Amino acid sequence: MPDAPPQALRLLERSRALSAESRRTIADAIAAWELPVRLVLMGRTSAGKTTLLNGLSGTSYRTGLGGITSSPTEVAIGDTSLVDTPGIDDVATALSVLQPLLEQCDGAVWIVDGLQPVTASEREVIRASLLPHQPFHVVVSRFDLVDAGERDAVLDRVRVLAAGLRLVSVQ
Prior knowledge:
alpha/beta
């Protein structure tokens, strides 16, 4: 495990005195550092999830209004894997797609349209589907189109709506 952080290797060395099961658990956790990080891109239809994916990965998946992405699409970018998802419009459908994905991913990125208010269905899906331990980031799309005098208010509104979640950053 040469890529594991030094403190993880020290922990593994110290674990020699533990039971075989505990050593396996620690070794599995350290091995997970070597796996690609998987993040789910989630948000309302036409919020900019696929546009963000294209911009970060250099891909050219079709974008537009009205829900172009109909099923999850995974793209690897170095040691990170991004999973683009259909938009959150119908709560039951969104939960049926997102919950299994989030159980297999390391975190989530919620794409919020800076020009539109966050909907109750978005908040409901986010709160119902995120696991307590998952890091959660928010990206405000179309932020360049928000009036300069309104930008702080938009970011504050997003922070308030994400209160109670394991929010890592709002950008």
